Amino acid sequence: MSQAEPGARSSKPTVAGPANLQVVLEIVAGAASTDADAPTYLLGEYLGILADAALTGHRPAGNDLAAVRRLGQRAAEEGVDADQAVDLYLSAAWRMWQQLPALLPSPRAPEAIQAAAEMVLRVSADAVEVLVEGHQAARRSMIRQEESARREFVDDLLRGDTDVARLVERAEPFGLDLADSHQVILAKGARSAAGLDSAAVTMERVVVDHFGDREVLVATKDDLLVVLLPASPRDVRTGTEVGEPAAQFHLWLTRHVRSAPWKVAAGRPYSGAYGIARSYEEAREAHHLAHRLHLREDVLHARDLLVYRVLGRDRAALVDLVQAVLTPLTTARGGAEPLLHTLDTYFATGAGATAAARRLHLSVRAVTYRLARVHTLTGYNALDPAHHLTLHMAVTGARLLDWPATRLPALSAPRGSESDSGNPLA
Description:
By secondary structure, the protein is of the alpha+beta class. It has helices at residues 18-36, 46-56, 62-77, 82-98, 100-103, 110-159, 164-171, 196-211, 245-256, 272-293, 306-311, 315-326, 337-348, 353-360, 364-378, 385-400; strands at residues 181-189, 217-221, 224-230, 262-266, 270-271, 299-301. Strands 1, 2, 3, 4, 5 and 6 form a six-stranded mixed sheet that branches. The longest helix is centred in the N-terminal third of the chain and has 50 residues, at 110-159. The protein is elongated, with a radius of gyration of 35 Å.
């Protein structure tokens, strides 16, 4: 310990006796605990350090402060708020100050009382500083551990971990009953993924405010914002069922997180742990399909995209269709993409040349000219109802296969064989 400050006594004074001092410390500890509503054991040797400073003028040694720092860590680990811990220590210092006249030896010179009070204040400030440091360090460590456990749980949940019993056990602290039906909603920003964690924090507050803290979960995975909801969520404030939670979530995102336009995709509800993973995969595939097919909708539902999944089941047939119908477009000036984009927009606008021209920022004459070029090159007329379905499916297949940006694979195996099956998005 360092020497006393100038003006303090250089030798240790005597008091009425150790028993008397111990009684005073116990009284101070009990009163401070009541003041702060915090356990007395978090004071540790703090009161002894204060008493020693008042009686001898000594500042606490490094190991004394290290012990206080550990008490701050313990407080955090046991759920004692930092404000409570600080109140406990300040109240103890204040009550110790009140007891100074009784602790100091006679005669009690005013300068001695002043010096003792000053030392109590200084030691109290030192102790509170390291107490808070320990509490904050423990909280940061706990938060990192909680975040790590949360991310690991979310990853296993969305992957459909094979250890279902363990997954059910881990889900309980998050308020999830995996025996119920749930659906997964995925939100993706149109620009950068930066700030996704901040968006998750914001939207978690919104979701809990509307749906409660049971059977809901908001997290991030890769560049997606993940929301897990009951199959038929109810707004806890009104008691009414939310019919389109994906649309409602997109509205909240737009209102509360304005950093980027958002596209939201919802999987269908399923029961059980594996059902959550299945709903997640459907929502993720919906985002991929929206990207490949240039879908303009901000809210997508997996149930509305089932036809594209059916189309993609037979990869060989899809490649064959694109090759047979659309490859002649590659001989056009500028390649196949301008004509393919025109066909895609024409079908997306309900086969109306005027609406397609408006979206493409072209004249109606330019659009009809391009459609005529398609007819000339392929033999299929987009204006003919008999050719409409073939051309539409071929254009959709081209988008699913990312053609013409990606070369079509060679069809070496017979159609229908195992090597040709699968999703073209894989």
